[in-house]
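Let us work through a complete example step by step.
Step 1: write down the sequence.
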Amino acid sequence: MALAWCGLPQAALAQADAPSAWDAPPLRRSPQLQETLPADLRPQLPVFVSGDRITGQPDVKATIDGHAELRRGDTVIRADRLDYTVPDDLAHAQGSVHINRAGNTYDGSVLELRVDAFQGFFSDARYRFLSTGAHGDSARVDFLDRDRSVVHTATYTTCQKDDSASWAPDWVLRAKSIHLDTAEEVGTADEAVLEFKGVPILPIPHISFPLSDKRKSGLLPPTVGLDSRNGLEYMQPYYWNIAPNRDATLRGAILAKRGVEVGGEFRYLESDYRGLVDVNLMPTDSQRDRRRWGYSAQHQGQISTPVGGVGLNLNLNRVSDDNYWRDFRRGPLPLRQRLLPSDATLSWAAADMSAQVRTLKWQALQDVASPIVPPYNLMPQLLWRYTPQDLDRGLDFSMVADTTRFEADRVLPNPADGQRSFVQAQLSRPFLAPGGFVIPKLQLHATQYQFDNPLRNGQSSASRTLPTFSLDSGLVFERDARLLGRAFTQTLEPRAFYTYTPYRDQRYLPLYDTAATDFNFGTIYTENSYGGNDRLADNNLLTMGVTTRFLDPNTGAEALRLGIAQRLRFSDQNVTLDNTPISERLSDVLLGAGINWTPQWGFDSTVQYNPKTGRSIRSTVGARYSPGNFRTINAVYRLQRGTSEQIDVGWQWPLAALWGGQAAGSGPERVKGQDGGRWYTVGRLNYSLRDRKLVDTVVGFEYDSCCWIGRVVLERLQSSVTTANTRLLFQIEFVGFSRLSLGNNPLDTLKRNVPRYQYLRDQVSTPSRFSNYD
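Step 2: predict the structure and record it as tokens.
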């Protein structure tokens, strides 16, 4: 083992001759810095010692007095006095002893350590970990090896000390012993107690906690809440880190008015498939006098075979009763709806062809005040698609063949259960150029129905064959322009779309999967007014529109967009859902505008305007202001003439900024230990101008105190026309000790309801050991 003595006084070093910059040899490329030194390299590393006075024998023993330092690899030891025995690789240090090993530091009075093996003890030690900033005091630290140590009569906290003499950590874990494993990045404490603001709040006989931001099994922060339907709620989740690609969250909850609920979520991720399963069970609900349960499972899988790719997708959702969605609003998102699908699809794809077999069955959760008609079940659906690539002469062709068995899961005097089969083919020849495009397209749609029972007209079968022709065209003009002192590239994009489909009487055909499409900029340039395959509108119309954009010439970002479009109908449309012909020659006018003048500000609006009445039929106007992290305000006005008129406002903002204080450096941007914490207000208000009342309300406060985060959220969500569910939720997280799961309330409520909400402690990368290099 090499031993280098570096004991020259600083003045002597300054007087040493050195070549000037002009005479210096050329620089050589340095090897890449390594976070972890290879095990086979460690025995070859030299030991460097320095100090005011060094005595001893090279390669045998060294004694350093005054500003003693020993350095080997990623380990540095400093002390007033240090004795190092080379054959045993043993260091004895006394007086102001300091160790830095890979960024983790220890300070104490007496040290005995085998340097390479990192085995020994440290008396009266204070420690600090690089990855989490956690620190504490101890009577003694036993180093078992380079990765494991035991801290006796110890404290542990992530609260950072400030300059005040009266400083005390907001929370601290006091334990008889703490076992630390930096390889597994896990700590375990025995005979411990958790203190908050100097008050013992939780005795803990045994607990494990993370030493980094990596996932780790253990208890998650509990949620305490008050619910108008459930009374006092307490939920305690437990996170199980099964493997890097599998985990589970187990939940236990006590609902004062209902009983005990248990559940859990299991997630898995493989190279060919992934999915999750979420299950909830309440053995006895005292309010409903029955057992309550719900499950939601999703799976997506794709494997390669010699004959093509085979996929299996599952989306299964079921609950015990019609009131489940109303009573368990904190359940999985798919189970909060009144229409629950159970969908299974087996698919295949190879080259230009694909096929799938699908079954879909709905569960409709009925409400007496507002009943719903469930969609038809697909039992099953067979679909084949052919889309050849690289056809000659620039042609595009596709063909779809589908046969589906539809069954109504409802009580009707004469349900239109039956089989529908159709073939749809389309051929187009796009002509594309930088300054414009022309796309003629021809479609043929042939459909055959076979019904279990005769329709109203007495038919047990029906067929329909319809061609459709469309011609889409547009131009793009560009010019340099200036607007409000800024240079832009302005475009002018006129567009014309014509479509023609002849009339066929479709009044008696059932509506298996068909509804009217929304009237917007995405659907106004399409051939059919309906989604699905049971109605083909007899269109003979021309859609004309124009859009202008102001683009940043350097980045291409869109700063301003203005658009207008309208349909001109040449003949009546007789195929409608209510069998009432549409005779208006001019449709409503669509007006759209979008402004993103700066990254902080955003504005977007769409207005459906009726020229005859001079009033808007539907309007959506929204604005966003997001000047930085954890600062966002979103406001949207929505009008559906004669139906609804609402204002929706959501926000997340530091309270200090609201009353003129300085809010910079909050959240992850803040410098730890330099202030007393940050308050944030967060929420969303949905107000109905028509009914003059709040429909949905989410209002909360968050407090980030460096080492802990507290939040309280009031949630009132409309569950039906006449009823609403109100909850008050509380949660506290001890940063670096009790990890937070994004699927637990109230954070789940904020993420789901507040647009652009940011978690105060998004996970960041672990610091390098060189960021705390001695």
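Step 3: interpret the result. Helices lie at 10-15, 324-327, 655-658, 747-753.
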